[in-house]
Amino acid sequence: MRILVVEDEKKVAGFIKKGLEEESYAVDVASDGIEGEYLASTNDYDVIILDIMLPKKNGIDVVRDLRIKGIKTQVLLLTARDTVEDKVRGLDSGADDYLSKPFAFEELVARVRALMRRKDYSLAELKFADLVLDQATRKAKRGDTVIDLTAKEYGLLEYFLRNPNKVLTRTMIAEHVWDYTFDSDTNVIDVYVNHLRNKIDKDTFKKLIHTVRGIGYILRDGEE
Ligand code: CA
């Protein structure tokens, strides 16, 4: 799942990015309102974390203009001023939730998860056939076999499990599992999908991750 962080304070932005990446999210950072609005308009993010006090264009104007453009991505506003007025203005502009600085990182993650849930994302376990991904322990299970995953493998498997029986192109995978530093000229996606397959589909007759030649991959329970 891919998140956009719009925050001009480098330390805060870096702290959020690092923490979310440790939670297996792909994270892009914009440092002013114009850049943030541009990235939010041109990429399909799952959640946007948007500071209110930003250079060039403030967060409230950014979220208002995104909504006018028809972009419905869940937005969590951040602000240093914890006033009722700011909160009302923020929510009126079309933001989905609000968090005052300073905040505990755990709370930020909990809010992000809650926003993902509103997009019909379930919380505890993602399941497909006999494959289960436990989002609390961050481990996968195929039948009774417990599978350890790296952060990237976890992010990739989560994306597959949220989109079963659907052909996922390399572009879609890149957009939801990698950030904007991703170099599309490489075969990184294929390499990671193969790592994941070796863990998930190894020693089993029933393969779940299938290649769609020339296009990408599909999580499917059935024949090739
Ligand atoms: Ca700021």
In short:
With 224 residues, this protein is an alpha/beta fold.
Question: In words, what does this structure look like?
Answer:
The model has no long low-confidence stretch (mean pLDDT 89). This protein has two domains: 2-118, Response regulator (Rossmann fold); 125-219, Arc Repressor Mutant, subunit A (Orthogonal Bundle), CATH 1.10.10.10. It has helices at 10-22, 33-42, 59-68, 84-92, 105-118, 151-162, 170-177, 188-200, and strands at residues 2-6, 26-30, 47-51, 74-79, 97-100, 125-128, 131-134, 139-142, 145-147, 168-169, 209-212, 216-219. Strand 1 (2-6), helix 1 (10-22) and strand 2 (26-30) form a beta-alpha-beta unit. The longest helix has 14 residues, at 105-118. Helix 2 (33-42) packs parallel to helix 3 and helix 6 packs across helix 8 (188-200). It is of the alpha/beta class. The chain has a five-stranded parallel β-sheet with strand order 2-1-3-4-5, sandwiched between helices. Strands 6-7-8-9 form a four-stranded antiparallel β-sheet, covered by helices on one side. A three-stranded antiparallel β-sheet has the order 10-12-11. Calcium ion (CA) is lined by residues 7-9, 51, 53-54.
Q: Which helices and strands, and how do they pair?
A:
Layout: E1 2-6, H1 10-22, E2 26-30, H2 33-42, E3 47-51, H3 59-68, E4 74-79, H4 84-92, E5 97-100, H5 105-118, E6 125-128, E7 131-134, E8 139-142, E9 145-147, H6 151-162, E10 168-169, H7 170-177, H8 188-200, E11 209-212, E12 216-219
Parallel strand pairs: 1-2, 1-3, 3-4, 4-5
Antiparallel strand pairs: 6-7, 7-8, 8-9, 10-12, 11-12
Bound molecules: calcium ion.
